[in-house]
Amino acid sequence: MLKAIIFDMDGVIIDSEPQHAKAALRVFERLHAPADLAYCKSFIGSSTKKLCEDSIAHFHLDITADKLLQEMNNEKKAVLGEEGYQIMPGITELIKVLYQKGVHLAIASSSSLAEIENVVKSLGIKKYFTKLISSTHVEKPKPAPDSFLLALKELGVSAKETVVVEDSCYGCQAAKAAGIVCVGFVNPNSGSQDLSSADVLLESFGAIDHRFFKNVLKRSLGEPITIADTKRLIIRELSTDDVKKIYNIYSDPEVRRYIPDIDDYLDVEMEKQAAYIRNVYSFYGYGIWGVYSKTSKKLIGKCGIENQMIDGKEEITLSYLLDSKYWGYGYAIECGKAIFEYAKSQLDIKRIVALIDKHNTRSINTAKNLDMTFEKEVTYKGHNFLLYAIALPAASKRA
């Protein structure tokens, strides 16, 4: 269960890395140190103190670490006075939404506590944060896990109840070293950061909500995510335990009739499906999900959306497969409507298509009942199909 989110500050809440680099380069220029932007960016995610200590040794500077740190901090204030805080788009709204949902929020930053306090006060967001943690509070800065471990202790939560948001290589490594799920925020101004240790990457805060973080945490714990809860069905991510049940549905010749690429060997199909479950859901945020009857509690099929190259164009395609015992009762339409709503509200997908065998009258009627319109005939994997499509209206995901 999600109880807390810990944010880095620089590069996540405020776009401050360019300002920090500008301040550092001004100081280095005065000291005649041949530092460049790449050198400054190599310390993103660590502390200014670490930058000072390294640069004194690297450039043989005749200055103490404390004196250099003071000059760096003074120059940062000067740059900030010139430009003000550059807040990341969408972050304030996200913080408010998470707070309203009862999530405990903290900042764990390599900046000083005074800097963190100034930022949250200036942006009017201090009241939303339970704890503010500075690298000065711990023995070792990021990539050591100390800051995040202290944040967990101060918040009174466990690593399995928490998500970290970081924009730097050091920050992501620190989060994982603390055993915490990490969302890597891709900020171009943070330089070329290696965020490969993060569990998932994020490019914008514009439409992210509480559900996004809950799902990231659940996936990390190996728990399937519920996509939709309709009148008669539960649609959720498949688990490896479901694969054999799906394969049993495949054994019906009527089900297999219009479905290519089903392996005849159960162990091979199970291996393929297990790899799919591990990799696809977390990468895309969507895929083919399980369909469960609320009445019987049993898996009765699967449905979802996938990326496919069709007629030279990248498309997102609707797919569903139901046990033949459930045909003719409107379950496919119920699945389709739930998928469209999820794609619109949670994924901001604008268009979905369906590839249908021209002899598959059931699926053609389902497409029409879902308000999909015929566009053209296409050839896909050597077979002729009808292409139906629907345009989804824009919807806000944040609530």
Distance between the termini: 19 Å
CATH class of the largest domain, named Alpha Beta
Query: Might you state the CATH topology name of the largest domain?
Result: Aminopeptidase
Architecture of the largest domain, according to CATH?
3-Layer(aba) Sandwich
DSSP E strands, number: 14
- How many strands, which pairing sense, and closed or not: the largest β-sheet? 6 strands, parallel
Question: Which strands sit side by side, in order, in the main sheet?
Answer: 3-2-1-4-5-6
CATH superfamily of the largest domain: Gcn5-related N-acetyltransferase (GNAT)
What is the N-to-C succession of helices and strands? EHHHHHEHEHEHEEHEEHHHEEEHEHEE
Anisotropy-based shape:
elongated
Could you name the ranges where pLDDT drops below 50 across 5 or more consecutive residues? Answer: none
Total domain modules: 3
Number of helices, where a helix is a run of at least 4 consecutive DSSP H or I residues: 14
What radius of gyration results from the CA coordinates? 26 Å
The share of residues in helices is 25-40%
Mean pLDDT across all residues, rounded?
89
Given helix and strand content, the structural type is alpha/beta
Proportion of β residues?
A: 15-25%
